[in-house]
């Protein structure tokens, strides 16, 4: 998958419309410091714990997405993403343990306001809107993380040797992960055609940009935990 894949279709238009909010998300200081290997460890631990709590609600949102779809092919595509998230949870815990964070440590952590704001927004859109609305607010995370990962992997300034965050960055070059992102982009474009995405561009832009802003706030939440 090349970065140009994120520039086409309705997704590409929504991404472009998000403007400075999108740039602030994919090029956030948290991301830049990850690539340089200079991110304070407390900031990364804060991110890891909140990301685990985030993934639980993200799985709920994908379960809701499956329930809103009407064709077996589309349900299978969304179910594959749901299963990938559920399978990622134990892997995430295993990764957290490498950073001195046990499952009991994570479960006892309260959700940050940024985690609550983002996940409940996604679920609220999912319950109040249709399937295209829901997938629109999921896509900044689904495709945005792939873009961030690929940018870091392809940036000559990214440090890998001696960088404690190198394994996290390398995860985004995994072929199965990128194939899942491509599947989500394809599903999004299909639903956009079926559900009048072009005629709903203004409202979808609001949803997409709001989710993007909440992604940026999630990075900042981690960055603020420097000690």
TrEMBL record:
<keyword id="KW-0784">Thiamine biosynthesis</keyword>
<dbReference type="InterPro" id="IPR016084">
    <property type="entry name" value="Haem_Oase-like_multi-hlx"/>
</dbReference>
<dbReference type="InterPro" id="IPR050967">
    <property type="entry name" value="Thiamine_Salvage_TenA"/>
</dbReference>
<dbReference type="InterPro" id="IPR027574">
    <property type="entry name" value="Thiaminase_II"/>
</dbReference>
<keyword id="KW-0378">Hydrolase</keyword>
<protein>
    <recommendedName>
        <fullName>Aminopyrimidine aminohydrolase</fullName>
        <ecNumber>3.5.99.2</ecNumber>
    </recommendedName>
</protein>
<comment type="similarity">
    <text>Belongs to the TenA family.</text>
</comment>
<feature type="domain" description="Thiaminase-2/PQQC">
    <location>
        <begin position="16"/>
        <end position="224"/>
    </location>
</feature>
<dbReference type="InterPro" id="IPR004305">
    <property type="entry name" value="Thiaminase-2/PQQC"/>
</dbReference>
<comment type="pathway">
    <text>Cofactor biosynthesis; thiamine diphosphate biosynthesis.</text>
</comment>
<dbReference type="Pfam" id="PF03070">
    <property type="entry name" value="TENA_THI-4"/>
</dbReference>
<comment type="function">
    <text>Catalyzes an amino-pyrimidine hydrolysis reaction at the C5' of the pyrimidine moiety of thiamine compounds, a reaction that is part of a thiamine salvage pathway.</text>
</comment>
């Amino acid at each position: 998958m090349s970065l140009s894949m994120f520039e086409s279709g309705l997704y590409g238009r929504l991404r472009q419309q998000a403007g400075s909010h999108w740039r602030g998300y994919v090029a956030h200081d948290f991301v830049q410091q990850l690539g340089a290997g200079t991110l304070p460890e407390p900031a990364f631990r804060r991110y890891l714990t909140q990301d685990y709590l985030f993934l639980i609600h993200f799985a709920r949102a994908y379960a809701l997405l499956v329930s809103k779809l009407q064709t077996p092919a589309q349900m299978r595509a969304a179910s594959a993403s749901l299963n990938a998230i559920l399978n990622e949870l134990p892997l995430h815990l295993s990764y957290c343990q490498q950073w001195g964070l046990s499952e009991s440590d994570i479960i006892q952590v309260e959700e940050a306001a940024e985690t609550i704001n983002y996940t409940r927004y996604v679920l609220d859109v999912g319950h109040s809107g249709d399937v295209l609305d829901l997938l629109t607010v999921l896509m900044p995370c689904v495709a945005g993380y792939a873009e961030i990962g690929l940018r870091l992997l392809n940036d000559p300034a990214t440090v890998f040797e001696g960088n404690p965050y190198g394994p996290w960055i390398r995860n985004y070059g995994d072929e199965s992960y990128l194939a899942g992102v491509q599947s989500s982009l394809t599903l999004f474009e299909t639903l956009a055609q079926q559900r009048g995405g072009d005629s709903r561009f203004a409202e979808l832009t609001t949803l997409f940009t709001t989710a993007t802003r909440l992604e940026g706030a999630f990075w900042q939440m981690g960055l603020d935990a420097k000690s």
